[in-house]
Amino acid sequence: MAFRIDRITLRQIAMPLVHFFETSFGRTIGREIILVEAASDGVSGWGEVTAGENPFYNEEWTESAWLILEHYAGPRVVGRTLDSAADAAPLFSHLRGHRMARGGLEAAIWDLESRLLERPLWRHVRSSSSASGAAELPAQPPEIPCGVSIGVQDSVQQLLHKIEGERAAGYQRIKMKIKPGWDIDVVRQVRREFPKIRLMADANSAYTLEDAGRLRQLDEFYLMMIEQPLAHDDIIDHAELQSRLDTPICLDECIRTAHHAEQAIALGACRIINIKLGRVGGFHEAILVHDAARRAGIPVWCGGMLESGVGRAHNIALSTLPGFVLPGDISASKRYWARDIINPPVEVTSRGTIQVRDEPGFGYALDREHLNAITTRREEVRG
Ligand code: OSB
Ligand code: MG
User: Fold this and answer.
1) Separation of 79 CA from ligand 2 center, angstroms?
2) What was the pLDDT predicted at 198?
3) pTM above 0.90, yes or no
4) Rounded Cα distance, 33 and 30, in Å
């Protein structure tokens, strides 16, 4: 079904986190998020740009994403008629990098198309994957397994306390952030306290190959995986490191395309892949990464970027693909926000799962009043 993109509106919102989130690259206390609205024939689709406030996770940040959307990606689609949402990503493929900016717009177009078809986005996503054909589409919306990502804390005591709380809430696995000075000893204490939990560590590129001996010490704690220990753009060193570790390596930052996934798998640089919608530039590429991993027998899970309800709902839709067999970093709205921008907020069952909603598009209603109250910038893209 062809549809014309009548209007693209960018908006920036300010959302304070209920608790700071600290990684090896810094501490976030509040988010500055860009939402993209794509309208056709009076129907709107929404996407979220997952770039951080600073170019520390990758090269993008809120300001750069706004400029890319305003001057490059947005004008490519305003007034254009698309045969399907899958045709959106190729319109931006001449741009180098800036996948989170592109991905926010692309996701809005996927949401728009599924709303025009009055179809849940998750069904739309599943039927677009060649590695999970329509025949496999379940009649009932699935439940997706959830884990939590816990940042570096001010004390080990505080970390243990947080883990206890998340376990009690039912989350299926705990990811803890590590960095030099907050790693082996802290993981040891967590393991002593919680010998049976599914535990993993995310370093966000805080180490080099010189640290291989140190990282090997983590093997004794039978972690599910260690995520992105080495440089954000270095697949080769990860292959070398993986050959020296028993613990599976999971790549996050390194994988921006399906081609990267294929190369990393071929080199033995990882045994697991974290797929983030924004990092790879939207649904089109995310599905291709999933399909490549599935063909190779590599399990994937959905990463998070401290998203508002809009990005969170998109992550839930993505996670219904059959290769997402490990718990994702997709947790309840209330872990991040005093008030989310969707209704109902994302909730997690006592089994540590999210029940996917069978509603059109991303499946939740926008809280317009709240959205307007926290909007700090708004602009329509000129074609
Ligand atoms: O590396 O997965 C990461 C948050 C910001 C930037 C990078 C990462 C993260 C997380 C948070 O781990 C996951 C979440 O949204 O809860
Ligand atoms: Mg990560």
Assistant:
1) 37
2) 98
3) yes
4) 10
